[in-house]
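Troubleshooting entry. The earlier prediction with iron/sulfur cluster gave an output that would not parse, so I re-checked the input for stray whitespace and re-submitted. Clean input:
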Amino acid sequence: MKPHFFDYTPDQVVKEITAAGFKSYRSKQLYQWVFSRGITQLADMSNLPQPFRTWVQAHYSLELPRILHISTSIDGTRKYLLGLQDNSAIEMVIIPAGDKHTLCISSQVGCARNCQFCATASLGLKRNLHPHEILGQIYLARQQLGDKRLTNLVFMGMGEPLDNYDNLIISIRNLQHEAMFAFSPRRITVSTCGVVPKIYDLAASGLKVKLAVSLNAAVPGKREKLMPVTLSYPLEELKKALLEFRRQTSYRITFEYVMIKNFNMGNDDLKAIRRFAGDISCKINLIPWNEVPHLPYTSPNADDIETFRKKLERLSAAITLRKSRGSDIEAACGQLAGKYQQNKIPSLEE
Ligand code: SF4
């Protein structure tokens, strides 16, 4: 299999191009075609001489993930099921809000972290995504958006991004590279369930990126039940890592808190959140639980949500209430891929 163009940095590509006897400016032209003009067909790159095109064709793949299925919500959220070369399926979601568009992407096929509220967890971990499979989602999303701009990017789809650390770092570097996706660091958020050693690594990497932590419970026993990662990395250790991340970067931490009725919305939960996050410069995103069939949890109603939000507001952190987007299209990550695995959804390819 040919290596993929997106897996390389422009510096690496220019070295290979010049080593093969072509002028270095050919590399710049190639990047302009692919990233400024959105063209991946070598035949359409009219100012590139045929011998160079033939060489690129022989050395790099420019293939993108295939769109297998698209579900569109009444709120405009679009969920894509994407097929990879080995026939694995992953999901990405485009979420519009006014003239902004956020893309939620996957970092692994499945996930090993087994969070009890998550549809992806039931798939288990199949494999890590390569950088080009991560970046391919963004390239594809831009194509899908046409004239509209992709404004924000969140690693919040299938998989734990910090469990695919090396490929995540390559992807983020290429995402931010001027010649490639030129994405601003403050528009990229990596969301983790709390893989403490890798939070330290990310903080020390020098890479600018925002961090979100899927908190969901701050009462230790409850979080252990909901998120087994807590057994390896307890909340106190997570907090120390977050304070270090905050020290090394200029960005506030975001906590994601999925509200589950009769589970994590009581007074003990509020106290625990205050204790855990009260002295961290942070933002808390409250997200109503998106029902997933076969999981034993319940969505809160509007009153439950409002009561919880008001009580939590006494905390100094900025509280945002995130609407459940795309709840009519099974937008909870992993639902569509799970059905695909069981041959329960028709594919666009069929
Ligand atoms: S919530 Fe994230 S880390 Fe947890 S199982 Fe799901 S995909 Fe993995």
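This one parsed fine. The pocket of iron/sulfur cluster is lined by residues 111, 113-115, 118, 120-121, 158-160, 193, 214, 333 (CB under 6 Å).
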